[in-house]
Amino acid sequence: MANSLRGEVLNLYKNLLYLGRDYPKGADYFNKRLKNVFLKNKDVKDPEKIRELIARGEFVMKELEALYFLRKYRAMKQRYYSDTKDTN
């Protein structure tokens, strides 16, 4: 792996580990899957392929962030906007 990309890969891994703490199926489930994916791709040497994998990882990060924001939004909506049909 090119040394310039090594830092990006490590940073991506750390960010995904951090985001995985709140994963709905549990942090252990997420961490095992994350480790398996990174180990599966550890022998990739082509810088272009590494960049593609980094881009995919960043996409996963954005999807996780969207999932968490949606979950928070739904929780707040339930908390503050109860159904008006039940108040008869």
UniProtKB/TrEMBL annotation:
CC terms in the record's Gene Ontology section = mitochondrion
Q: Which residues form the Complex 1 LYR protein domain?
A: 8-61
Supply one GO BP term. Answer: negative regulation of oxidative phosphorylation
Against InterPro entries, the record matches this protein to: Complex1_LYR_dom, Complex1_LYR_ETFRF1_LYRM5, ETFRF1
Q: Which family does it belong to?
A: Belongs to the complex I LYR family.
- Stated name of the protein: Electron transfer flavoprotein regulatory factor 1
Organism per entry? Pipistrellus kuhlii
The top of its lineage is: Eukaryota, Metazoa, Chordata, Craniata, Vertebrata
